[in-house]
Every structure is written in C-alpha cells, then in structure tokens.
Amino acid sequence: LSATVIQRSVWALLLWPSLLTVSMPLDCKEEQGSLSGCTSISQEKLLDRVIHHAELIYRVSEESCSLFEEMFLPFPLQLQSSQAGYACITKALPMPSSKSEIQQISDKWLLHSVLMLVQSWIEPLVYLQTTMDRYDHAPDMLLNKTKWVSDKLISLEQGVVVLIKKMLDEGMLATTYSEQGLFQSDVQPEMLESVMRDYTLLSCFKKDAHKMETFLKLLKCRQTDKYNCP
C-alpha cells in the first residue's frame, strides 16, 4: 500500500469515533415498530436533525468512495468506469436536475424527492455490504463505513417520513418505495466487473446523498428566509 493510503486510513481511524459521537440520534421507531419516537420533536428541531444526518451520510459516502478508489481501483480503471456509461440506479426517478428546476419545485416535492432517493438506496447498500465482504484485504474501515451509512439511511428515512407528516399534514407514508427494475442483485458478476459495479454504486450514492443534503437545506432555507434562498 502507498504511504498516502496508509496515512489517510490512519487519520480516518482516528476521526471515526468522533464522527459517531457528534451524530444526533434520529431513531424514530419505538419497540412496537411505530414512528412515534420523532413525533414529539418540534418540526424545526426534527428538520435540523434530518439535515445533520444527511450531512454526515454524504461526508462518509465521500470518504468511502475515496478509500475504495485507493484500495481497489487504479486510475486507468477509474477512467474506464467514467467512460463505460454505467448508469446510476436512480437515473429513472423523476428528480429535478438543474438549479432552476430545484428552485421551482414545491416543499412537498422536495421532501418526496428526498424520500424516493433514500428508499431507492436502502437495498443496494445492503447488497454492497454483502459483496464487499467477499473482497480480499477489504479494510475494516471501509466495511464499517458502508454499514454505518446503510444503518443511518434507514434512520434518515424514518425522520423524513415523520417530517412529511408534520410539514404537509399527510398520513404516514409506506416506507417501502421501490422502482421495479431499479436494482438487480441476483446475478453474481466476475470480480473485476464486481469491483466496477460496486464503485459505480458508491459513486452514484455519493451524488444522490449530496442531492438529499441540498434538497433538505433548501427546505430549511425556505422556512427561515423564503425569498433569499440560493
């Protein structure tokens, strides 16, 4: 391993416990399975916690993607991946893409867009944990980060569902959104293909995690300064 990879891994190992301690709890489900755990929190505080969760998820997804590149993907393969036309699994979702489109959509669509993205990634991230367990010499740091993001994504889903109830006065939504054909995990690819596929998943999730954070921060801005949001 290069000195740079080892140095970054050491720093990540040192910073990882502090990242866990600053994460505000967002577990909404009680033992009975209801989402009443978050309903007692004010709308403003819940939105702050949801945003904080999204920020951490995006940050850790960036770290995971960089670590995966350094451990398993030489630069020529990174170029090949970017040129190979691997499509993100959420490409078919009706998401606003340009800045003008994002500014024009309603608060309701911002929330539902976040929920669609969150729920679309729950199954793929579980798959990613399974497939990376088969790698030789996969660092525990990368496996732990992937599992942490997967767990926190479920907590984020719960928080967004309750937020929709509070802000839009809508009934509790089913938290099992999935687009048929978005993700197929029944075929086991060859090792190189598996590495490329997993890298694509990580890269696409990082982009979508940034979208979630952006949408939620725009929503927060609209609550406080509606006419001066970027």
Structure report:
This protein has 230 residues and is mostly helical. The chain has a domain at 41-74 and 99-172 and 207-229: Growth Hormone, Chain: A. Helices cover 67% and strands 0% of the residues. It has 7 helices and no strands. The longest helix is centred in the C-terminal third of the chain and has 34 residues, at 191-224. It starts with a helix and ends in a 6-residue tail after the last helix. Mean pLDDT is 77; it is low at 1-23 and 172-182. It holds the Pfam family Hormone_1. One of its GO terms (molecular function) is growth hormone activity.
Can you give me a brief rundown of this structure?
This protein has 230 residues and is mostly helical.
- Give the averaged pLDDT, no decimals: 77
Instruction: Name the CATH architecture of the domain at 41-74 and 99-172 and 207-229.
Output: Up-down Bundle
Quaternary structure annotation: single chain
Q: What portion of residues belong to β-strands?
A: under 5%
- In whole angstroms, the N-to-C terminal distance is 42 Å
Q: Write the CATH fold name of the domain at 41-74 and 99-172 and 207-229.
A: Growth Hormone, Chain: A
Structural class: mainly alpha
Radius of gyration: 18 Å
* Shape, per Cα inertia axes: globular
> How many distinct beta strands?
0
